[in-house]
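Fig. S4 source data, part A: sequence.
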Amino acid sequence: MHYLISLFIGYLFGSIPTAYILLKKKKGIDITKTGSGNVGAMNSFEVTNSKLIGLFVLLIDFLKGLLSVYIVSLIYPESFVLPAVALLFAILSHCFNPWLKFKGGRGLATAAGGTSILFPYFLFAWIVLWLIFYFLKKDILIGNVAANIFTLFLIANTSEIAIKYSYPQAKSESELMLFVIGGLLIIFIKHIEPLNEIILKFKKPGMRNDNI
């Protein structure tokens, strides 16, 4: 029952389609059919050319993760797993929104909101790695994917430190890693399509593939 309560709270908060509601009400735009079709802050900004709208979507999506973790932590103050479950399902329902035929955002803002109180070590590591790869490649998507991959390796190799800086403290490495792998996997899946588009751009028109 505890897991179901946590799951429900996270899934409910995560499923609030912030960008869709805001752009539909303010601009009459269906964001799922405009720009990249991504229901998040970046596409909201690119479609409307409004920093205010982009920042507002970012803030609300951040709060969806934060509130999911905060509320479950109030109910179960000694547990790391239950707030982690809430955050995973908040990320899941944000990325695959049940109200938008399972279209959604890429989950980064929602994940950042939850980890800011549950697992700040993870958030700090991800941001540092993202900045490194972004300045190397000058591409947000590549920065996102590289930060995901290298954060996973970093947490796996510094698990004792990672456990120390989780709140409430995780009881085991496996408990922590299941949460990390689950969250990063959901986010990575949402980056597969745009990554494929980047790869295709680098292919020369008419190039033969000798491996076929």
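Fig. S4 source data, part B ends here. Residues 207-212 have pLDDT under 50 and may be disordered.
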